[in-house]
From TrEMBL:
Any matching Pfam family: DUF742
Native source organism of the sequence: Streptomyces mesophilus
Domain of life: Bacteria
Organism lineage: Bacteria, Bacillati, Actinomycetota, Actinomycetes, Kitasatosporales
Protein name: DUF742 domain-containing protein
Amino acid sequence: MTNGPWERTSPVRPYVITGGRAESEGGPLSWESLVMATDAAFPAALQPEHQAILTHCQGLLSVAEVAAHLGQPPSVLQVLLADLLEWGLIVTRPPIPPAERADVTMLRKVLSGLESRL
């Protein structure tokens, strides 16, 4: 019985992937922050984890989604994303503040109205 992707990896691996870093210099990206690869060609010398991130981030994805796709803890992804951001290989967008989000009640009414017409 497995409990997720982290059970299949060695406990040393995240340490190796991040080069021993537990945090990024600019502070961690929020798990809801959206990331997307830039059009810049990335160097072939990037480590495989960086390349996998760039492959998955062709459209906007949250930090948590990228972590889930790659089977890495979000804390590891935050360090790797900070590298890519520093190198100009990704762009980020902060999460939408709660005050700017759509009203869920209104969205449910719209969905209900659409369903009643089908």
